[in-house]
Amino acid sequence: MSFDPRQVNFLQVGAERYFLLDPGDGPTVLANGSCPHRGGPLHLGRMEDGTQAVYCPWHVRKVPLRHLQKTALPLVLRRDGAVAILPDTQAAVLMQKKTILAGASRPCEAVAPLAHAE
Known about the structure:
Blueprint: E1 2-3, E2 10-13, E3 16-21, E4 29-32, E5 46-47, E6 53-55, E7 62-64, H1 65-70, E8 75-78, E9 81-84, E10 93-96
Antiparallel strand pairs: 1-9, 2-3, 2-10, 3-4, 5-6, 6-7, 8-9
């Protein structure tokens, strides 16, 4: 699937969520957007300098960048766009521009969980 990363940074494929994650010292990846602990929205998580991890906003669970990179979808970024290899599915694909808090451009000084509805 082709898309413009200036216009789209969040993909939903069926029930699965993915977001563009810029770790700062490595390539941008199309990371799984669900925390492995309880499915929290990792795109709303935070990265602290030097931790090499994204902290889930629900329970402040630390998800290592290497795990997110290993489970990321294949992605090729070019000046004029991006191409991602999506899972083989018949599910609908929703492309959106969302606020992405996780990433090198959004350092945080303190990590605190956000309240969420059960």
